[in-house]
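Summary for the lay section of the report: proteins are chains of building blocks that fold into shapes. Here we show the chain for Cytidylate kinase and then a coded description of the shape we predicted for it.
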Amino acid sequence: MLLTKNLITIDGPSGSGKGTITLMVAEKLGWHILDSGALYRVLGIAAQRHGIPLDQQEQITQLARNMDIQFVLNEKSGEIEPVFEGENVGLDIRTDEAGQAASQVAIIPSVRDALLARQRDFYREPGLVADGRDMGTIVFPEAPAKIFLTASAECRAERRYNQLKSKGVSANMRALLDSIKARDERDRTRSVAPLVPAEGAFVVDSSNLTIDQVMAQVIDFVVEKLPQLR
Ligand SMILES: Nc1ncnc2c1ncn2[C@@H]1O[C@H](COP(=O)(O)OP(=O)(O)O)[C@@H](O)[C@H]1O
Ligand SMILES: Nc1ccn([C@H]2C[C@H](O)[C@@H](COP(=O)(O)OP(=O)(O)O)O2)c(=O)n1
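The coded shape description reads as follows.
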């Protein structure tokens, strides 16, 4: 008998609300989370810390294969934070520069290969919600429920601006918009695992939707696709 795994994939561009919705869905179902972007972000800053230029494909692939990274639960915030070579890099990976570095190392096909098994290993009972760019297309093509979140670039830049401000990080709206557009372009046009909705994905444009409205639509879709949750 073919067993359908309890797997939900949530893909989309930067600022589309993937992280937020992933967390809400996982909390509601009591499932685990894969924040695949965090892996690429840690790799980006790891390369910089080891002095490896971001276009050095072979050295970066080596680093991706051997990278010492763990994800630990911060009991206080309830967030899962990456620990790289023993150091908590939860804050360092959230900067705009780290996002750009992640997007640059992510275009290297052998890097994506090296991270594939690590990402698949995140699957744990009772289930997994996987957040990224290629969760539904490449990493978990067998997932029964695939979601693709999107929103206009302006909307996403404004969200990122407010998010950074609320954390006390200074930000420039124009620079953030340019950065989001550059990352969109790189993520969508790369030769391997480009950012596209998976076949059969439920596409939600959240430009004019609140987080709760998006969540309601996503849960309706998930319950339709995973009848065992009814
Ligand atoms: N539908 C929405 N309306 C308004 N703000 C949103 C919406 N979805 C997400 N946000 C906010 O936008 C910011 C970026 O969301 P996040 O989930 O981190 O996006 P992503 O993981 O896709 O980059 C967060 O501050 C989040 O609270
Ligand atoms: N599954 C993934 C996840 C992220 N990436 C790359 C491309 C993205 O621009 C960067 C950062 O991803 P991340 O999801 O952390 O970024 P956002 O929170 O959406 O801004 O990593 C990827 O190529 N594949």
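Put simply, here is one thing we learned. The chain has nine helices and eight strands.
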